């Protein structure tokens, strides 16, 4: 059923390549961000669900 519709679209073969490229670039960027992220910031965010509302880190960079 869908094969007929896809055959009518001009240059339809490029869309899977574009989708894969976006997917790959996003996850490579995410991996780079995780590796380069500030470990103190990661620890602060990890503890956030357990936080009782008191500010423990007085660093103005992450406040």
TrEMBL record:
Keywords: Membrane, Transmembrane, Transmembrane helix. The chain crosses the membrane at residues 14-35. It comes from the Bacteria. The keyword Transmembrane helix applies. This is Cytochrome C oxidase Cbb3. It comes from Fulvivirga sedimenti.
């Amino acid at each position: 059923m869908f094969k007929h519709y896809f055959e009518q679209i001009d240059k339809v073969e490029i869309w899977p390549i574009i989708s894969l490229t976006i997917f790959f670039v996003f996850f490579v960027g995410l991996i780079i961000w995780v590796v380069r992220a500030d470990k103190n910031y990661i620890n602060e965010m990890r503890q956030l669900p357990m936080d009782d509302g008191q500010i423990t880190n007085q660093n103005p960079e992450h406040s």
